[in-house]
Amino acid sequence: MGTITGRRAAYERARKRRSTVVATVSSLAVVTAIVVLVPKMPRWDRVHESFFNGERFAHSLPRLLDAFVLDIKIFAWSMPAIVVLALLVAITRNSRSAALFPLRILTIAYTDIMRGVPIILWIYLIGFGVPGLGIERPWNSPLIWGSVALVLTYASYIAEVFRAGIESVHESQRAAARSLGLSSWQTMRHVVLPQAIRRVIPPLMNDMVSLQKDVALVSLIGPIEILRQAGIDKSKFANFTPYIAAAAIFLLITIPLTRTTDWLIERERRRTTGTRIS
Amino acid sequence: MSTAKISLRGVHKAFGANSVLNGIDMDIAEGTVVSLIGPSGSGKSTLLRCINLLEPIDDGEILLDGIDISLPGFDANPVRRRIGMVFQNFNLFPHMSVEDNITLSPVRTLGVNKSLARAKAVELLERFGLADKVNAFPDQLSGGQQQRVAIIRALAIEPEVLLLDEITSSLDPELVGEVLDVVRELKTSGMTLVLATHEMGFARDISDLVCVLYSGHIIEQGLPSQVFSAPQSERAQQFLERIIRAGRL
Ligand SMILES: Nc1ncnc2c1ncn2[C@@H]1O[C@H](COP(=O)(O)OP(=O)(O)OP(=O)(O)O)[C@@H](O)[C@H]1O
Ligand SMILES: [Mg+2]
Predict the structure, then answer these.
(1) Alpha carbon distance A148, A138 (integer Å)
(2) Contacts of A203 (CB under 8 A, 6+ apart)
(3) pLDDT at A114 over 90
(4) Which of B93, B153, B170 to mutate to probe the A interface, most A CBs <10 Å?
(5) pLDDT at residue A2, rounded to an integer
(6) Is the pLDDT at A150 greater than 80, yes or no?
(7) Higher pLDDT, residue A62 or B175
(8) Are B37 and B47 contacting, i.e. CB atoms less than 8 angstroms apart?
């Protein structure tokens, strides 16, 4: 008995060690190939000078970081608004109450129209159009209306994600909840939504990463955020390095965002199931 | 004048052109166990769902303590707290621990405070031998344990009647016994039970009344001894013969 268990454990350890070694060696091979081969390209020197200029990088970085604060702000106020609006739209579309029929039609029209036009167009239309109506300062700021355009478009995409999640919850879960005397709203709130949201977190986080990047589109109507600041620096010194610096700053945010999501999903899975099929 | 806990009078139900219940009359006396048996598709589940007001009926009456609960516009939520229901599978909420599954309805619909609801849940879990599972999640339980928790969850709102829809039919044979034991215990405690079942031996042992459903009609009803050994209608005889030949009685 004891020896069999011991042998099995030893075998498992050896197998684990072997896969670690294989993974390390293959990663190293790929990285080395890139580092060695890319500088051997014929015009690497010029690319190196105009995209990877250390001096320009150091000069732009602090200014870009400053400008990036605005991106974060736009993201920070748009994201909760998007989630709330998307949830409301998804719940309305999914409700079975006859009284909500007109609202249901409205939400269908809303998602179809918003999703059918490129985001950039909405940013131009709403960002220039609404302040153009002659609204008083400070309410005519393109920053506000650019954000509104982002919220309206993203909410229409994300509402569909939530709706798919809601519809993926098995009908018998609703039956079980209703048979316990829960109202249809309580069923939605405590039984359907929590399961639906858990299921759509991966696509949802994808959209959040896209949003984090699309925030830069608001610069098209004026506000000086990171992308515009990078453009200004690029023109001033005729060097593309600020773009590389901006890209690095975006990655600084988006990579931890995706890693954290994966970790959260994994933790939740472990908490509710405990086992894992390898 | 009826003394029945639940009475069905001429209940009709159709799904589109498919008419599933064709005039069901039935009395369920307080504290009795009523079994619904019959071939697959005969309407057993539909009947239970109608009693639980999960499906609106097309015609007839469903009386609970003499009051017609099937009238359109009748508030179904309080009725469902008086008539609990357990389904064949997918009963438990997978994102909630056993405790949260059990306390959800008492806390949200009856306004019981959380610690009281928890104490009650633990007490019920102890009574049915599941005390160590309070914090487990449904996916960590066996099928039999899941069904027992589902029954406990239905009991936690202290219903007057419990509807059980083939609660053992998705279980491995060796897990069926533990779930049926729970049902026996409920009968002993005086609970009014209505069960749709394919466990004929169990239905014979536990029921006070057996109803045989066939194409949405009750073709036979009576004491188990009578229905199982001397069915009157030809269809009931055929159905029971098939069951006996299949070795399920
Ligand atoms: N929601 C529904 N929509 C349409 N038809 C339905 C629905 N629910 C049930 N039916 C139909 O009603 C009939 C009776 O189904 P029901 O589930 O009540 O049978 P049952 O006696 O419980 O069968 P089983 O023993 O297989 O569980 C079947 O023909 C079924 O297809
Ligand atoms: Mg059924």
Answers:
(1) 15
(2) A161
(3) yes
(4) B93
(5) 56
(6) yes
(7) A62
(8) no
Task: Domains for chain A: give ranges and CATH numbers.
Answer: 56-272 (1.10.3720.10)
User: Rounded to an integer, what distance in angstroms lies between the CA atom of residue A180 and that of residue B149?
Assistant: 13
| Cβ-contact B6, B51 below 8 angstroms | yes
Q: What is the CA radius of gyration of chain B?
A: 18
Local structure of B215: helix, strand or coil: coil
Report how far apart the first and last C-alpha atoms of chain B are (Å, whole number).
37
Mutate to test the pocket of ligand 1, among B11, B36, B44 (most ligand atoms within 8 A of CB): B44
- Helices (H), ranges, chain A: 2-37, 44-51, 54-94, 101-115, 119-129, 142-168, 171-179, 184-186, 193-214, 226-237, 241-273
Distance, in Å, from the CA atom of B170 to the CA atom of B142, rounded to the nearest integer, reads: 12
Between A179, A195, A271, which is nearest B54 by CB? Answer: A179
DSSP structure class, residue A216? G
Ligand 2 (ion): residues with CB under 5 Å are: B 45
ipTM for this model: 0.89
DSSP H/E element including B86? strand B83-86
CATH (one of 3.30.70.3270, 3.90.226.10, 3.40.50.300, 3.40.190.10) for B4-245: 3.40.50.300
Strand partners, B212: B37, B220
Average pLDDT, chain A: 87
All residue ranges of chain B with pLDDT < 50 are 1
Please list, in sequence order, all residues whose beta carbon lies within 8 angstroms of the beta carbon of residue A129, skipping any fewer than 6 positions away: A145
- B100-103 contacts: CB < 8 A, separation 24 or more? B101/B138, B101/B149, B101/B153, B102/B149, B102/B152, B102/B153, B102/B156, B103/B156
* Closest listed residue to residue B209, CA positions, set B2, B5, B1: B5
CA B110 to CA B106: how far, in whole Å? 5
**Angstrom distance (rounded) from CA A105 to CA A97:** 13
The region, left, alpha or beta by phi > 0 then psi within -120 to 50, assigned to residue B215 is left
User: Nearest Cα to B106, choosing from B96, B98, B118?
Assistant: B118
By the 8 A CB rule, do B3 and B177 touch? no
Taking a C-beta distance cutoff of 8 angstroms, is the pair A162, A82 a contact? no
Between B54, B81, B95, which is nearest A195 by CB?
B95
Check pLDDT > 50 for residue A164.
yes
Query: Structural domain boundaries of chain B?
Result: 4-245
Q: Which atom of ligand 1 is nearest to the CA of B43?
A: 18
Q: Is the peptide bond between A138 and the residue preceding it cis, with omega within 30 degrees of 0?
A: yes
Rounded average pLDDT over A256-266: 83
pTM tops 0.95, yes or no: no
